[in-house]
Write a structure and sequence with these properties.
The complex is a heterodimer of chains A (193) and B (594). Chain A has 193 residues and is α/β, with parallel strands linked by helices. Chain A contains eight helices and six strands, in the order βαβββαβααβαααα. Helix content of chain B is 38%, strand content 17%.
């Protein structure tokens, strides 16, 4: 399975991709990920590729090859759309992060127009109410886990909520457990999809 | 089975090969190698961030003379800094196995150049391994140490960004015990480089290298898969792209030569490949290394095979490869249709360049200098680090950027031609120690008039917060000896040294103005910690008394300040509470949230 996670530097795409890879390995699959590290992390566009299966060559998902795209930011969802497989699914956090260039030009981009352009395609598009997640969890740092949990709940990933919880407990530092588990609980119990 | 990043796989490979001394200088995409060694160190390995790559290689050379296995980590341009010791060390040789992990960056993604370390290895006459996956990188490490000790030569492993920063399931099953180093045994014939010895060593190296190339023909890192009269040659991550592309193209009949040791070239295996094909397409990143080796071999052996690649335009010269580019190039070569689906959507893309973080003290430093010399003729020489991002709008405070340390010296050259200009040089704290200091000595010694701005944020920020001599903390988190930048500057004769918090805007502007007025070499040290090594303060908020002049957006370009319904708004989740915007607001409408 090929999953692409995209967003803006600092949104936690790397941890999300590692969690998916670890979960796949627990099931006896091999995994490859490729991540954006370095200068682009400073508020630039970042992409994590997660590939799980048996024989995987390239660390990066080919164009038109992603089964699922998890976009933590709407403009980044549009940027990565060419990676989506025909009939693939997208989960998009609706909260825009405006680039400085847009603010300087006095023209913030229209997040709704971005989302509309994606729902107009043949893709199976789902939306996540990011501000509601952050408000419920008390931190924007829960967004990456909330995205994963939502994708699990929608049945987009070959992963269960128990597997996701177990990966967070066994693979992340203890001080992050409460926040991330809260995000999963919020998504499973309260969020309307 | 472990899930390891390529850089971690190299680190684990070195540890499992019994490495004893590990040195390096941070640089994307190589940084995590040394950090991973430190993370897994059971206490038996000496690890340091050295002040620069030259120091790192020389420290490791000494350790290797004493019989220890060593690893030195750097990025490709770092090898330029370490070129002097490497070129000579190749002649002198080593005792304990020495592996240099030098990461190349096709694209380039986070580098100044697309230089190719495989060619550097050839220039230095040392063997080079080129991993095609993290798994292979792990397996190459013990082979590299064994080769290094067998031939007493430094050996390079050259991963590229997509190997360094990709993760894979790695079978870590090669653990060897660490051997006790023999110690340094005096032998001036061996350890003192003299012209006569170099002549003899040069002869020996040129005899040895073809021998290594012949041995490499049987190496598991080089593979020939016979499958038809059309040939594809590749190496590094391009091998992964080629294999994926061939699968997507329905496994056409081609023979594939995978090269994992580009120098010395495994000629017998390559010759077998060439004898079995009518023509060849070479897919590799950076320079046409495999391509030229195959052409040379065709000439040497009178093999009538056309070699297609970068030189005849069959493959692109610059930039990195991908499955798509490999598929396009292979399809054209084989005369088949590239089935890549075309995206049914082309919406306008939002441009999102990297920016200085919200709360970054560099923003305040650049803004203070900009305000201090407003309307005056000034040139701002910049350097390598987060602060290169000071070139972007609206600050536009980086007029030049060449290589590590060049800000100080470029400023001097500019000033020699235009003495009526105020010449600033901006250097980070880590860069200052890495290669800025000699430039400052040059300015003082030669009586130049420049203003040195040291951006001291107490860390090596761009590569992910590594310590350096100015922090007084070693990479093992033990306390080291802290070197004071101001004491160093004063000691070498810098006429005035101002130290100021850039986030105290008016004081910062005044300090720059005072410095500029002084003759000779003077310095302003802007001291405020990077947000990655400090805690956020209470965020700021824009009150109803905002007159909507948008100066806060226009002047400093902080990513936490955006426009909502045409008015500036601070995103509390992004604001770090640096307070710079509050100090420039003409009506005092920006206040700390209490």
């Amino acid at each position: 399975m090929d999953i692409l996670i995209c967003g803006v530097g600092g949104q936690g795409t790397v941890l999300a991709s590692r969690l998916l890879a670890w979960i796949a390995m627990e099931k006896g699959l091999t995994a490859r990920t490729a991540e954006t590290i370095g200068m682009a992390q400073r508020g630039g566009s970042v992409v994590s590729h997660v590939r799980t299966g048996h024989v995987i060559f390239s660390p990066m998902i080919p164009i038109g090859g992603a089964d699922v795209i998890l976009a933590l930011e709407p403009a980044e969802a549009v940027r990565c759309y060419p990676y989506l497989k025909q009939g693939g699914a997208m989960l998009i956090n609706t909260t825009p992060i405006q680039p400085i260039t847009a603010s300087l030009a006095g023209k913030p981009y229209d997040a709704q127009a971005m989302i509309d352009s994606l729902t107009a395609t043949h893709a199976d598009v789902h939306l996540l109410d990011g501000p509601a997640v952050c408000a419920a969890c008390g931190s924007p740092k829960a967004l990456n886990t909330a995205m994963l949990a939502t994708a699990v709940k929608l049945g987009l990933l070959d992963v269960t909520l128990e597997e996701l919880r177990a990966a967070i407990i066994s693979r992340t530092r203890e001080k992050f457990h409460a926040l991330n588990l809260r995000a999963i609980d919020y998504v499973t119990e309260e969020a309307t999809l | 089975m472990e899930f390891l990043m390529g850089n971690e796989a190299i680190a684990r490979g070195a540890l499992d090969a019994g490495v004893h001394v590990v040195t390096g200088y941070p640089g994307t995409p190589s940084t995590e190698i040394l950090e991973a060694v430190a993370k897994w160190n059971d206490g038996s390995v000496y690890v340091e961030w050295s002040v620069n790559e030259k120091a790192a290689l020389e420290v490791a050379a000494g350790a290797s003379y004493a019989g220890a296995r060593t690893l030195i980590t750097m990025k490709q341009v770092g090898l330029n800094v370490a070129a002097d010791p490497l070129m000579s060390l190749a002649y002198v040789g080593v005792k304990g196995g020495m592996v240099l992990a030098v990461a190349d960056d096709p694209g380039p993604i986070s580098s100044q150049t697309e230089q190719d370390t495989r060619l550097f290895a050839r220039f230095a006459k040392v063997p080079v391994f080129d991993p095609s996956s993290p798994e292979e990188a792990y397996r190459m490490m013990p082979a590299a140490y064994a080769l290094s000790e067998r031939y007493r030569t430094p050996v390079i492993i050259r991963p590229t960004t997509r190997i360094c920063h990709s993760c894979a399931t790695v079978d870590t099953d090669q653990k060897q015990p660490q051997k006790q180093p023999e110690g340094f045994i005096k032998d001036t014939q061996r350890w003192v480089i003299f012209p006569k010895a170099s002549y003899n060593n040069h002869k020996a190296i040129e005899t040895r290298n073809p021998e290594i190339g012949r041995d490499f023909a049987a190496s598991p890192f080089n593979r020939l898969t016979k499958g038809g009269r059309r040939g594809i040659a590749c190496g590094g991550v391009s091998y992964a792209y080629v294999m994926e592309a061939l699968r997507m193209l329905g496994d056409p009949e081609v023979s594939v030569l995978k090269i994992g040791t580009p120098f010395p070239f495994p000629e017998p295996l390559a010759e077998e490949f060439l004898q079995g094909v009518n023509d060849v397409l070479v897919i590799e990143e950076l320079d046409p290394v495999i391509e030229r080796e195959l052409q040379t071999l065709c000439g040497k052996r009178h093999i009538n095979v056309d070699i297609h690649g970068k030189q005849d335009g069959a493959a692109p010269f610059a930039g990195e490869h991908s499955v798509e580019s490999a598929k396009a190039v292979i399809s054209k070569y084989l005369g088949i249709t590239d089935p890549t689906p075309k995206a049914d959507l082309a919406p306008p893309q939002v441009v999102r360049p990297p920016v200085l973080c919200a709360g970054c003290p560099h923003r305040a430093s650049f803004y203070a200098v900009k305000q201090a010399v407003k309307g005056k003729k000034a040139v701002f020489a910049g350097d390598i680090g987060c602060y290169t991002l000071g070139n972007a709008k609206p600050l536009e405070m980086t007029d030049t950027c060449l290589c590590m340390g060049a800000d100080v010296t470029i400023a001097q050259g500019l000033h020699r031609v235009e003495p009526d200009t105020i010449n600033f040089s901006f250097i980070g704290d880590s860069t200052f120690f890495a290669s800025g200091l000699t430039g400052v000595c040059n300015a003082v010694y030669n009586h130049t008039d420049i203003t040195l701005i040291v951006l001291d944020n107490a860390t090596t920020a761009m590569t992910g917060s590594q310590p350096h001599p100015g922090t007084g903390v070693k990479m093992t988190r033990e306390i080291g000896r802290k070197i004071s930048i101001e004491k160093v500057l004063r000691a070498i004769g810098v006429s005035a040294v101002e130290i100021v918090d850039p986030l105290q805007h008016s004081e910062a502007v005044a300090a720059v103005r005072r410095a500029v007025e002084k003759p000779g070499v003077k310095a302003v040290i802007f001291r405020a910690p990077c947000i990655s090594v400090s805690k956020p303060k209470a965020p700021y908020v824009i009150g109803d008394d905002c007159i909507n002049c948008k100066k806060c957006i226009r002047d400093i370009g902080c990513p936490a300040i955006t426009l909502k319904d045409g008015r500036p708004l601070i995103d509390a989740a992004l604001c770090y509470g640096c307070g710079l915007c509050a100090q420039l607001c003409p009506v005092g409408a920006i206040r700390e949230v209490r």
